[in-house]
Amino acid sequence: MRFITTFLALLLTSSVFAETWVCSSVDDSGENFNDTFIRTSNGFDQPRDGGLLIFAWEIIHEDESVLVLHTTTTGNAVGAYFYTSITQIEKNGEKRFIQTIISPMNTVQLITKGQCEVLE
Length: 120
Known about the structure:
Blueprint: H1 2-17, E1 20-26, E2 32-39, E3 44-48, E4 53-62, E5 66-74, E6 82-90, E7 96-103, E8 108-119
Antiparallel strand pairs: 1-2, 1-8, 2-3, 3-4, 4-5, 5-6, 6-7, 7-8
């Protein structure tokens, strides 16, 4: 009986962590971009540059209709990038997303909009 309980707990836990959101947007020049958010035990990871960079996203809010993520990234060298980003993903309906990036050091503010698809 203990084996079955442990097996079911592992099965249910692993399915929670298997959630991946792929969000697509188009920039001003018409180029397509895909951002992938992979659920972890602490929030979501976003691999970049073929997995060489991985940004960790904290879950600020989540319910059955919306997922709101936050990350603050700092460079480790003088003049390196520093930014804070908030991403909101609509979990139902059109599965829209909006991402706002703010970087006071580089005077950058970007707003990206698009559609997401969940892979489980």
